Amino acid sequence: MTYCVGMMLERGLVFMSDTRTNAGLDNVSTFRKMTTWEAAGERSITLMSAGNLATTQAVVSLLDERSKTPEDRAPSLLAVPSMFQAARMVADTLREVIENHADTGQRADSTFNATLILGGQIKGGPSRLFLIYPEGNFIEAAEDTPFFQIGETKYGRPILVRAYERDMSFDAAMKLLLVSFDSTLKANLTVGAPFDFHCYEKDSLETGITGRVAGDDAYFQSISQGWGDALREALDMLPDFSLKAKDDE
Q1: Nearest to residue 50, comparing CAs of 84, 88, 5, 13?
Q2: Residue 132 falls inside a structural domain
């Protein structure tokens, strides 16, 4: 399983993905699920993936290969004029890969499915964020839907819904995401550290701050412990349920 989040802020875009893949409890591996393409001063595009590993790797490989091919021979993420066109290209590539896999051997479309988050900015347009489905259609983040999740989304969503603010800093957004990821990995062993991240500064048109947070990272451990302590303290502050009062009703 996977957990990835793409988030829109007034300052720019924040991406985070886990790196765990598994085919059973005794076959756990680490694979990077975030890829960035850049033409400094002209565009920065980031893609995160969840789903069948062969499918997602094929999609990334095709996009990467075509970005190095002359435009008259193949369309390229480094040549499309807008983020909308980039989303269409990625969606078409995903559909192409899934259809090619499904047409070979025993047909089981869902086996080859994948979902993607695409975000970034191309010169002349705003920074944009898209969620791309296996069918090849997609939706765009907006005021009412300022972040997207893919993979194992349910455990980390409540903290995002309650604490997200569009004007938060990158530092605050990273803290929020790490709490969300910590909540997810504690509930589901198929999600795990290290976590890759990318903070893209709006209008910079180049790759921003990137890095990887290990499971034993001191800050992450303090966040994990502090969040657990804060939840217990908040629970203790709430009034206890009264069984006696219910009996008296």
Answers
A1: 5
A2: yes
What are the b/e assignments for 2-38, b being 16+ CB within 10 Å?
bbbbbbbbebbbbbbbbbbbeeeeeeeeeeebbbbbb
Alpha carbon distances (Å) from 249 to 163, 240, 246: 37, 17, 5
β-bridge mates for residue 115, sequence order: 50
Confidence of residue 26 (pLDDT cuts 50, 70, 90): low
pLDDT digits (tens, 9 = 90+) for 125-166: 999 999 999 999 999 999 999 999 999 999 999 999 999 999
In angstroms, the Cα distances linking 219 to 93, 130, 213 are 38, 30, 9
Q: Which two tokens stand for residue 242?
A: 């009264």
Overall domain count for the chain: 1
* pTM, entire model: 0.91
In a domain, 249, yes or no: no
CATH code of the domain covering residue 123: 3.60.20.10
Give me the domain span that covers residue 37: 3-234
Give the residues across from 151 on adjacent strands. 3
Reduce the DSSP state of residue 37 to 3 states and report it. strand
Is the distance from CB of 120 to CB of 44 less than 8 angstroms?
Answer: yes
Contact by Cβ (8 Å): 141, 128:
yes
Q: Which of 2-6, 32-36, 238-242 has the lowest mean pLDDT?
A: 238-242
The answer to the question of residue 245 being in a domain is: no
| Structural domain includes residue 122 | yes
- Taking only the tens place, the pLDDT of each residue in 177-217 is 999 999 999 998 888 899 999 999 999 999 999 999 999 99
Q: In the chain, what is the greatest distance between 2 CA atoms, to the nearest angstrom?
A: 80
| Contact predicate 42/231, CB 8 Å | no
